[in-house]
Amino acid sequence: MGKRSSSKVTKFRRRNIRSPAPGLARQHQFQHSLKPLTSFMLEKGMLASGLMATQLLLAPLAIAGPEGGVVVSGEGSVTKVSLLETHIAQESQNLLMNFDSFDVAVDESVLITQPNAAAWFVGQIVGGSPTAIFGNITANGRIALVNPWGVIFGETASINAAGVFASSLGLNTEDLFAGDGATFQAAKGAGGYVVNHGLISASLGGEVTLLGETVTNTGVILATLGHVNLASGSRAVVHFGSEQLIGIEITQEVLENNAGLKAAVSNTGTIDADGGTVMLTSSVSKSLFDYAINNKGVIKAKEANYRNGVIRLFGSGSSVLNTGTLNASSASSDGGLIQIVSNENVIVAEDAVIVATSETGS
Q1: In Å, how far are 220, 223, 265, 329 from 268, measured between CA atoms?
Q2: CB-based burial of residue 89 (10 Å sphere; 0-12 exposed, 13-18 middle, 19+ buried)?
Q3: Which pTM value belongs to this model?
């Protein structure tokens, strides 16, 4: 596809000196691990203000590891297997739980066992501070983390599941799985951001969705033969299907730039969904961001298993900028599809790479 440009004493007495409590030591280690993340974002010019930096450095203050799991809908339980391991046993097809916090430090892991690959675990975080994941989360089904104050996957995070959904838009509808879909709404003054600096991997044919007022990826997202959605808005309707996350409809533009970012949706990392679909969607109020979508990284949806890939960048309210790589090429058939659309400007740098051809030149 061609290039286009358009429409963070006194008395001396012998005293017993105690080492910090394990939980406190882990808290300090956890907060320390946030500092390079914030520094990285400031250095790369991703932060236009110090608000998000302050939130990243000060939160979460609680000891890492999921805390306060309460079943809202479905059947399941949370067990602390050890100081560093948490097991969530899901017994129903769909499970919604509320947590005070759902933080995972570098050396911690969370295992979620589910009835099957199509099952949904939804963890709603209600404690009022961002969720920060620096450890491992593994599930045999699909998982969702919902926190209006923000969701952060750090550089050392590793998420492996049949499907992954993370949202910084709060959940308004308790019945997630109704036919009309679930409504997600931004909370005024909350973080509103989803950030991935780690590795998020969906099973073959699975889906990864990051939804928020701002969405940033500098890490790696994998979904071979599946779907990757990075979506920005202040309200959205999400349809959770039995086979996959059917779709996201942004129903209201972003009205606040709480995180102080330059782009509502930004990718400087790698998104790989060979044989599948990658969709970056953003709807923002005019002049709120420099760009609705800014891709400086690599997005691949090459042909796999004789299935061509699709890459779509749809922006509204501000420009869409591509200075990176969009690759939907094919080795055995016609090339895939690449679309870049904005109701403002589409800007493609001269050194950007856009490939949607086959080896035969189709």
Answers
A1: 10, 17, 10, 20
A2: middle
A3: 0.84
